[in-house]
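Throughout this chapter, every protein is written as a compact record of paired, labelled lines. The reader may check this reading against the record printed directly beneath this paragraph:
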Amino acid sequence: MSTQNKLKTFNIGGVHPDDHKISARIPITTLPLPKTVIIPVAQHIGTPATIVVQRGDSVKVGQVLAKHQGFVSSNIHSSVSGRVGIIEEVMDSSGFKHTAISIKVKGDDWEETIDRSDNLVEDISLEGKEIVTRIMEAGVVGMGGAAFPSHVKLSVPEGKHVDYLLINGVECEPYLTSDHRIMLEKPREIIVGIKILMKALGVKNAIIGIEDNKRDAVENFSDLLQHETGIEVQPLEVQYPQGGEKQLIQALLNREVPSGGLPSDVGVIVHNVGTTFAIYEAVQKNKPLVERVVTVTGKSVKQPGNFLVRIGTPVIDVLIAAGGVPEDTGKIVSGGPMMGKAIADLDVPVAKGTSGILLIPKAEALRAEIYNCLHCGKCIEACPMGLEPYHLLLMTKKGNYDKAKHEHIMDCIECGSCSFVCPSNRPILDYIRLGKTEIRKPKKA
């Protein structure tokens, strides 16, 4: 089906940071195998997986290292072949320690059941429940950053009816281009992935939402979908944070997810384009999630690019492939500048949710001087959830978490729009994150 003419967007808040899509025209290149990988067993929202290997074991690419524990969990597979080394707690890119499995790389031997060819497999032989099981076994999680187990999303609760599948090709974070490159280089596989998801969900309608700064991707899908039914591509106005599930649903379908609710509450399931490609590989190629595309970028980066990286590869290896760390680097961020988190140790591993690594020059990395709130209301105008960010900051500073919860602080999607527009440079999002953390803590008896 052809693209629709009018550009759509969500109708509350939003900001317009500069794109800085430096690596958008750079094709995906495969990163050489590292000497050692460090594979955390908690690369997803939910319960960490249970380790099923021990030190000294020989493993192949695609072999299960840790089994999912409960429903909201995900399998962890070896991304390399070699020998299992130390199993210990290591720091991840968010600064927290988690149990991880180290593997010393020897060769590149894959499980024989994995189809490694580039041949497009269009015929979908599995049925709905079989598809969900295969996705669960392959350890596929949301690759836009949330890392929510994909099989859970596809298990629609009884009593809820889903009639639309939305594919998130927005990639609204400045600098990041991994999704853009996948859409340009693997569009046919993504379309098959969409059909797999539609079959699993039993829906007849799917929309690929792509911001208009990726016009080549829009035109690419538009051409390929001319003779397809039920799948369309919709160009969207460029507006951050349009990649948020609730914002994308509002932009494409004008449906509003209720406070505390899920997309399935309004008949929608959303999947990222990278996740959709991983689902194609899992179902059609029997390939677990063992590698992903990572953008390495920044104004001073010598060789910015989009790299296909094995899960568990140390960040430093990826940075070396991009020309190393520039002398003027002030901060290295996992993710984009709006929602990403600073990396404290360059030996931390690339995980399933690592969409990009951004190197920020010192001049831009320093926090500006903080002034008193001007009560200008700009943070309220920018908030895509219709909240009062400055008010939530004050409640958190005072430790009034019950009131903050009553004022819907938990609805905050942590997009950073409030901090971005604040003329007083107040760390609004930092305090909101703190408030949410305190609210989530179990209450003492």
Observations:
- Residues 187-201 form the longest helix (15 residues).
- The radius of gyration is 21 Å.
